Hints:
The structure holds two protein chains of two kinds. Chain A is built from 20 helices and 31 strands. By secondary structure, chain A is α+β, with helices and mostly antiparallel strands. Helices cover 27% and strands 24% of the residues of chain A. The model of chain A has no long low-confidence stretch (mean pLDDT 94). In chain A, strands 3-5-1-13-10-11-12 form a seven-stranded mixed β-sheet. The N and C termini of chain A lie far apart (65 Å). In chain B, helix 2 (37-42) links the parallel strand 2 and strand 3 (50-53). Chain B has helices at residues 14-24, 37-42, 78-83, 85-90, 92-98, 104-109, 112-118, 124-132, 149-152, 229-234, 241-254, 265-292; strands at residues 7-9, 28-31, 50-53, 63-66, 69-73, 135-140, 143-148, 153-155, 158-159, 166-173, 179-186, 196-204, 210-218, 225-226. Chain B is an alpha+beta fold. The model of chain B has no long low-confidence stretch (mean pLDDT 96). In chain B, 37% of the residues lie in helices and 25% in strands. The interface between A and B is medium-sized, with 30 and 25 residues.
Amino acid sequence: MTTSWKWIGQHFPPLEDKRFVLGKGRYINDVVLPGMLHLATLPSPHAHAVIKRIDTHEAARLPGVVKIITGAELSAVMDAIPQNLFLPNVRWYPLAVDKARYAGEWVAAVVASSRYLAEDAAERIVVEYEPLAPVVDPEQAIEPGAPVLHEAHGSNIAFQTSIDFGDVEGAFQQAAHVFAGKYRWGRHSGVPLETFGCVAAWDDLQEMIDVWASQQNPQITEQIARTLRLPTHKVRVHMDVDIGGSYGNKRGRKQIFLTCVASRMVGRPVKFIEDRMENMAAGDAHGPDRVWHVKIASDPQGKILGLDLRVIDDAGAYAGRGAMQISKPLTALVGPYTIPAVRYTPISVLTCKTNQAPYNGFGQAPTNFAIERALDMVARELHLDRAEIRFRNFIQPHQFPYEIPTGATYDSGNYPAVLQKVLELSGYADMAARKAAARQRGKRLGVGVAACIEPSAGAGSVFNFFRNPAMIGGGGGDVGEGVRLHVDVNGNVTAAIGFQSAGQGHETVVTQLVCETLQVEPSQVLVVRADSTGGVPSVATTGSRMHLMLGAAVLGAASKIKDKMVAIASQTLGIEPSLVELREGQFVARLLPSLRISFTDVARIAYRRADLRPANMEPGLVETYVYRNPKSGEREDMFPEGAFRTRGYTSFAFAAHVPVVEIDPETLHIDIVQYFMVHDCGVQMNPQIVDGLVYGGTMRGIDAALLSEFVYSDNGQLLSQSFMDHLLASAMEVPHFTMESLCTPAPGHPLGAKGAGEGGYMTGPAAIINAIEDALAEDYGVSLTSIPITPTRLYELLQAVPAARA
Amino acid sequence: MKPAPFTYAAPSTVEDAIALLTAHGDSAKVLAGGQSLMPMLNFRLLRPAYLIDLNRIQGLDVVTERDGVLVVGALTRQRRLEQSDLVRQHYPLLAEAAALIGHPATRNRGTVGGSLVHADPAAELPALLLAYGGSVVLQGAQGRRQVPAAEFFVTYLTTAVEPGEILVEVHFPRWPQGTGWGFVEESRRHGDFALVGVAALLTCDAQRRCTQVAVALTGVGGVPHLVAEAATILHGQVPDAATIAAVAQAAASSVEPESDIHASAAFRRHLSDVLTRRALHTAAERAFQTAHSL
Lengths: 806, 294
């Protein structure tokens, strides 16, 4: 590993910015095909109801209406959507088939010549419902006698288990203190400005389908093939659409399948762009929604001995990929702490809500919230400083690689240094004086402290947990990432990647890597997106993996290209290949630098001059490299029977946040006045992009802590289904950020890189709530257990404190 | 989220607009800045058969003073209210509060008349009109009539505008020298509708005694709420912490707020107290300053 890079880690403004800032991005709604029709859906007004009858006659008579699809018709021509938990008796289709299981669930779809007409027709569809009692609250859903959503499945529990890692009983028995807390992580999500969208075009002659979608998961190709009962090579998913925001939830399985089936039915291209209400109420894009029961055992000095985490997770009406978010936390189940024993009892529950989707951190954010809240509880009870308790429990730098009780092995880090740094930046030691000064001004100032582990680049084996034989990409599944490099006859480079981006700057990073490895200039590089038939294997932009995976993949492909070019140069220069090196765009004889041939001349020989190439060398310079995730290939049978363990993540980044809040004690207005963070994601390929990822993630943490919530009424109606009521932190709510980073390289990665996309959101909520609690500690001493915390909820909470009524 | 079908008309005079409105009755809706109407159309919460766009009508956007009254044309953009020198100088409460209506982008489109006719229970302008003791001018086929603010707001999203009538002018009387003002609101985020907002105007004589006062709240019920007790408590008194607190408590006990997902009724009642107190303190301070220079 060299530190004298010319391009990697240097200031390199994102290449994509220009087209985004100028409004020249190519989003899904910019995809317009000749003869294209538009799809709209009809939502169920009931949270739970039997569909008795659907009358489409009047709707079908409207001019411009081409096709009306009901759930019954749809389910006859496609397979049920694959679910990620093993639930053979839970049947999930894009349209409700005989029962609607949440308010807003789509019961019919209209295909018409415009979206306007499609909506007009949808209104005229008459559906006769027999309403049933809804099940909305996840805790009530698992009570005996609760209405059951899927009768054939028999209960509302989609998955449950309880596993002890280490001697949990012993830890709690020997502990000096055991504290218990209940925490509520509210239902919220990323809610990108762009809703989900898809264009599908069925080709009758080739019997194949072309698909464009604002999706982040190339594996959708095999899922389309399976559900539409097509061979995989007859599904071409284009990857050249800019995704207008995702943070993990741009999955849109059912939306894509519905659009594809609709196109096949009508024989014309069909576009489906969710409107905001379709997106919020039924887009399967909500994040985790959890009730935590946490017990924590400590010795007299606040050293944590054991942790007991019981979590009820509201998966929504069907178990899509989001429901698997209770598995990733296994890989960082004790946070950055040396906790020797942990019990994990996850219960995934089905309720009358749209499905849970992956959201920033894949379930680790709420888990980290629970761990950090539990640590604060111990600190409060034992009168320890909140930073001090973390220092006492941190895994120390000399302990790496460090295997936590679940089997995950943290690769490297310096957690005390990161926390120390952020405390210094924030002036943590002087907070008492600042609190007093704020009080003089009539405000209450509080400072929060929270840390988090950010597992980066997961392998499919993390989902062994669910033992779902039907799951695509599961088991010991490999999750390699490919790059194809093509050095053309003039020495210019095309790099093909096989997935779509949602603003993470992948074209920039690949360009930097190509420039670094092949010693070309950025003007010589073009990054393109191969479609699913293009032979560039890709998995998804998930789990803070892409910079890390792409980095290694470009290195691998460039190495293959270079080997071939060196062989040509060696022949031309008449020296051994081992004596040739690439230096400033020239292949040079190591010992006699005047003996040289240019990169371009070698490229020309590779294509045009069989006479100058080594005998039998294949013409051209095109090489693909698929980087294998080092953690893939792990199978359940590698562990002794009954002792489930997981190793599925490659590297582990770390972050610590210290927000400073001011609260108006009368209006309870919460103002984040400063926000300090320090993180360590190893070697950063593009610091500007990393900064953006961390800022963006932290803004989502502010949403989660203070603003964003999908609020359901007791009868299952979504009360916050537009931006009138669903609040997200806007540019006006961005606090003053101060960020620094440290660098502990990942030992297992060729460039030393770790992930950076999720730490902001994982750390933020715990840190902010901690700060609010601190601001109110002197006057009220309340402990905050749920998010989002809003002024009105604070008011209710403080009203219950006797001192407050005075 | 596309509107149901409608027929669009863009008349160039108020008379033509009224004729269209009269002809189509309840099936027509008037479009001004569109900041509330367009989303409601897109949500299909409203489905008028006819949309009558006033934006082509000339002369409905005056901001001028007539006989000590600020006359604001119905189509005046909210942004202009915020930036007008006349408004800033003589109607500072209006200018200050206008800056809290949504965001610059929405204020550039949103109109003064549109906001009043829409009568959102948490909007700023209805409370401001009430605090000033202003009125609106409605024009119909039979001519014009003037309706005081107190009679204009009927209930949620409902005003005294009769079928066939268009709001053409808004009148804000200028308050005398020695008037202080305060506008305070609490919202979830900058630019959101207020959970509770309070507009206060307070005039004092050279001895600091209150001669005239108005306190109006928004966000606390179906219509903006004028605190009747403000005058009885403060008239002839020097506004101090005790009298102001009494008005604030009167405000809190006279409002009838509702709960929604952003704030409980109890919290809104609490905010009514706190914000009334703050608005009046600011108004009193400013009144003392100007009264002093009388």
